[in-house]
Amino acid sequence: MMQMTRQSEDMTGAQNDMGIIVYWSRAWSSFMVAGFSIVTFISVAMAWKSWPEQKVVLVVMALFSLMMWAGLLRSIRMLLYPPTLFKADLQGVVTYLNGSNYGKEGYHIAWQDVEEMKLVKRIAAGGGKKRVSTVALLLKEGCEAPSRISLGGSDDPRIVHLDASTGNLRLQPLVEQMQGLMATALIKN
User: Fold this and answer.
1) How far apart are CA 87 and CA 2, in angstroms?
2) What is the per-residue pLDDT across 128-158, written as a single tens digit (0 to 9) for each?
3) How buried is 161 (Cβ within 10 angstroms: 0-12 exposed, 13-18 middle, 19+ buried)?
4) How far apart are CA 35 and CA 4, in angstroms?
5) Which of 18, 28, 96, 168 gives a 20 to 30 Å CA spacing to 81?
6) How do residues 81-133 score in pLDDT, each as one tens digit?
């Protein structure tokens, strides 16, 4: 039975220079910053223009402006400090997915517990028809991942999906580099 261990983000990756670190896409964060900036400017202008005749419009637009400002600040933070999605090195993979968010605490999956790794296209979690690419790790018989990290359109608790469509290294080159790490790790052990 596999033992999943929790690791803090600052505990992994620093020991080994042969690892892979995949971050949230800065392009997406840039798009969010631009969008929130435009909508914030429009809502502030509408609130300003409604003063003093339409106090209800002022209050609604002021509240909307505050919500947009909060979204803008969050997007700027994600642009400057993108969340780590996962790290892979000779010890295994650490995924930072926790439910539907990426956090500071991750789960370590040792290479010895991985039966197969491949690039798959699946429907994005949360419904809709958007298809995303993920690295699917099929864990060995008797190994199960916690449900909050194995989300990804599969009911099989032995499959863990890692985002493969963001960061500097994408899709097939990412899978090939991870398979190389896994092969090297398994040969050394």
Assistant:
1) 19
2) 667 777 888 899 998 888 777 755 556 678 8
3) buried
4) 39
5) 18
6) 888 888 999 999 998 877 667 778 888 999 999 999 988 887 665 556 677 77
